[in-house]
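Morning!

This is the sequence you dropped in the shared folder:
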Amino acid sequence: LKNQAGTGISVVDGTRIENAAANAWTPWSQCPDGYSAVGLAEMNLHSERSDADLIATQCNDNGCRLYCGNAACNVKARCMKGNGIQFQNGNKIQSSGNKWSDYSVCSNGFVPVGMAYLALANGGNTDINDFQCDQTGCRA
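The structure's back. Tokens below.
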């Protein structure tokens, strides 16, 4: 992101949720008024357990939250606003494990800035190892 003069683009962090309970959605990390959540600024699992997992992430108009399996966790949203900036989710993609998913792509005229939702389909018997967002879209 390059902030050109006159765009009024501003990027800030949302509220920091600390030590949210394991095996449940965290409270929402909320953005300041006028800002939209565009992804995660921070995610941290508090566990040395081998079965501690990030099960899901979700960012929308409420902010961002996590579902952390077998570990307490922290979450903080990354938030953006600017003159004339519009946000829209890409299409929903489902994929089997052990390979890259297809890309979730944006509508014409939009570019990806982060993942709105990412979840393990089997509830945590695997791990989220990688995700990628580029000009094509986002995939995991």
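Headline: Residues 48 and 71 are 9 Å apart (CA to CA).

More detail when I'm at my desk.
O.
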